[in-house]
Amino acid sequence: MGALLTLDGVGKTFDVDGKPVAAVDSVDLAIAENEFVSIVGSSGCGKSTLLNIVGGLEEATAGEVRIAGKPVTGPGRDRGFVFQGYSLFEWKTVAGNIRFALEKSRLSRAEKAERVEHFIDAVGLRGFENAYPGQLSGGMRQRVAIARALVYRPRILLMDEPFGALDAQTRGMMQELLLRVWGDHKVTVLFVTHDVDEAVFLADRVVVLASRPGRIKREIRVPLARPRPYDIVADPGFVAIKREILSDIREETLKSMQLALGSTERSLY
């Protein structure tokens, strides 16, 4: 199967107080259509920066991102974004928030209404379509955000720590909901998380980034059958993959801490 999303030598350097700081460097990655890929790594390794580059929210300073062979030059409707913050309009209802994503669509009014109704059902919010965000729990608000990102049917869904603010029980339920929606709607997902259990449970493949500048340290395929029951986290195969990833992240975190300590010591002399 050919790649839908391709990152070719992608790098990003920021200017910090007049000095160049590399956040991401030489990332090569190919993601197939309908594939679910998680990105993990130590804090500050460039996970979100990489996602923003794919989303067209930031411009790479090196390399290129392509979708179906076409270079990414900015945001586009072929990509949907879900952030940790819900980013909902507090003055719009659930249906209104989802419908907002279709405002510039050429669909007829009836087609838009049908699409909104479909995704209200898809994320389990039937009965809450006229509720406002302030009347919803955190998990329900994130369901609205997912529905809004999918309602115009992007080819790629980009998710940046979308469940990070949720309690453990709600988080688990949202992970299962996401897998069901992903399976039903055949969308490619690039998912950033700091939670290794979450990364392995959701993904076909986990990409581990090295500490800054972010480079791909390892790609690990997750050969666990789908659908995955949540108690698969206790499966020996799951535990073995998790242990491998945690070892990689720990190694990179220690490297980062040693570099920071060395920099601090040099500054004292």
What general form does the structure show? Answer: globular
Order of helices and strands: EEEHEEEHHHEHEHEEH
**Beta-strand percent range:** 15-25%
**Rg over alpha carbons:** 19 Å
Q: Please identify the structural class as seen in this structure.
A: alpha/beta
Query: Which CATH-level-2 architecture of one domain?
Result: 3-Layer(aba) Sandwich
The neighbouring-strand order within the major sheet is 6-7-8-3-9-10
CATH topology of one domain, what is it called?
Rossmann fold
What does this structure look like?
The model has no long low-confidence stretch (mean pLDDT 91). The protein has a domain at 3-75 and 193-267: 3-Layer(aba) Sandwich (Rossmann fold), CATH 3.40.50. It has 269 residues and is of the alpha/beta class. A six-stranded mixed sheet has the order 6-7-8-3-9-10, sandwiched between helices. A four-stranded antiparallel sheet has the order 2-1-4-5, covered by helices on one side. Helix 2 (94-100) packs parallel to helix 4. Helix content is 37%, strand content 25%. InterPro entries: AAA+_ATPase (IPR003593), ABC_transporter-like_ATP-bd (IPR003439), ABC_transporter-like_CS (IPR017871), ABC_transporter_ATP-bind (IPR050166), P-loop_NTPase (IPR027417).
